[in-house]
Amino acid sequence: MADTTSCPRCAYDTVEHVFASPVPGVWDVLQCARCLYMWRTSEPARRTRRDTYPDSFRMTVEDIGNAIEMPTVPPLRPAPVT
User: Fold this and answer.
1) What is the pLDDT of residues 51-74, one digit of tens each?
2) How far apart are the C-alpha atoms of 47 and 41, rounded to whole Å?
């Protein structure tokens, strides 16, 4: 089972519960409050546990501070007229 106390990517200790599976207790979706990484608790350890998360994808506070701005989501296109 996933570690739900810290972020696998940046090790931040504030993890928020975002969603629970329709079948209670099967999985939860969690999100880091600092780097915004999201994961489902049913994913493999390499995605859910800091000690097995790939080094090349880990982030530090400096990495987050120096990251370029997130791209904006473009507006939705109008629905086609049928």
Assistant:
1) 999 999 999 999 999 988 877 888
2) 9
Please state, in angstroms and as integers, the Cα–Cα distance from residue 40 to each residue in 7, 64, 66, 82, following that order. 12, 22, 27, 39
What beta strand segments (E) does 1-82 contain?
15-20, 28-32, 38-40
**So what's the pLDDT on residue 80?**
87
**E strand or H helix at 55, and its extent?**
none
Angstrom distance (rounded) from CA 70 to CA 4? 26
User: What's 37's DSSP letter?
Assistant: -
**How far apart (Å, rounded) are the C-alpha atoms in residues 32 and 9?**
9
